[in-house]
Fold this protein.
Amino acid sequence: MANKDFIKKFSYDTLLNIVSYGLPILMLQLLVFPFIAKEWGVTEYGEMLALTAIINVAAEMVGGTLANVRLIKEEEYKNKGIVGDYKRLFILGASTFLIILLFVSNLLFKQDTYCLVLLSSYYLLFTLRSYLSVSYRIILNYKSVFINNILLCVGYGIGLGMSPIFHHWAYVFIIGYTLAIVHILFTTRIWQEPFNKTEFYSVTRNKYISLSGAYLVGNSMNYFDRIFLMATIGATGVSNYYISGVFGKVLNLLTAPINMVMLSYLSKKKSIAAHEIITSIVLLLGLVSLFVFAANLFALNVIQMLYPDYVDKARPLVLICTLATVLTACTSFFKTLSMRYNSGKSVLLTEIVYIISYLGLAVSFTTHWGVKGFCWSIIIAAVIRISSFTVLLLKKSHV
C-alpha cells in the first residue's frame, strides 16, 4: 500500500510539475519569442537568443545548482538542526558571475549602460528565483510551484506590453521574475534564514563548486549552440538554427520538470538498480523516436504558424535540428541520476569529456557543413554523454 501511495504521489507531482513548468516555456515559445522576432527583426532576435543563453547558464549554475545542493544536503542539516551557509554561498556565486556577465555582454555585444543595467537585473532576478523556489521542492509542495509559474506567466504577459514602450525585450523577463519572487517571499521563510557559516560549510561549498563546474561544462552546452553560431555564422544563423529546432524544444516541457521531481525523491533513495537504468535507456530511445516522427509530420506547420517569414529557411534543417535538440534534452535524465549516486568529481570529469568532444566536433563540422554539420556534432556528443553517464551509474547500481 505504501508503495502504491508513493507511486501515486510521485506521478501526481511529476504531472503537476510538467504542467506548471511547461506553461512559461509554452508562453516563451508561442508568444514571447515570436513577438520579439517580429518586433525587433532577425538580427536583434539572434542577439537576444545569444544573450538569454548566457544569462540562463549563469543563473541556473548559481541559483539552480545551489538549490540542488540544498536538496541533496537537506537531510544532513535537518538531522542536526542546523540552518545556514546558503545565503553566503548564494551571494558569493551571484556576485562573481554578475561581473563575468557584464564583461562578456560588453565585450561581445557592445551593450550600453542602460542595456547592461537591464541585463544585470534580469540575471539577478532569475538567479534568485531559481534558488528560492527550492523551498517548495524540499517539502514536495508542487501546488505552490504551479502557482508560482502561473504568476511568472502573468509577469511575462505584462512585460510583453511594456517592452515596446521602454524599447527593450528584457522587461518581459524582469517583470516575470519579479512577480514570481514576490510570491515566494510571501509564502515561504527561506529568505529569513541567517547569514551564518555552519560546520557543514566547507563540505557544502565544495559540493556546490564541483556541481557548478559540472553544470557549466555540461548544461552550458544546451546554450553554447547560440553563442557558438553567433560567433561563427552571425545572428541570422542563430535565428535559423533556433527556429528550425523549435519543435524539439517542446521536449523541455517534460525533461526539466521530471528531473526536478526526480531529484527531490531521489534525495531520499539510497541506491539504484541496474534494471532501472536499462529501462531508462529503452524509454529514452522510444521518446527520441516519437519526437522525431512527430517533427516529420507537424514541425513545419508549427514554424509556419509561429515564424511565417522563416519557414523556407527552416525547411531543410527541421529534422536534424529536432533530433539534436531532443537528444540533448534527454541526456539531462542521466545527469540527474549521476548527481545523486556518483561523486561530484566523477560527474565533472564526465562533463569535461563531453565538452571536449562537443567543441572538437562543432568546430570541425560547422566549418565544413554549416548549421547541418553543427547539428551532427551535437548528436554525436550527446551519444557520448549518455554512454558515459550510463557507465558511471552501472558501476554504482545493484542487481
Notes: The radius of gyration is 21 Å. Residues 63 and 90 are 7 Å apart (CA to CA). The mean pLDDT is 83. The chain has 14 helices and no strands.
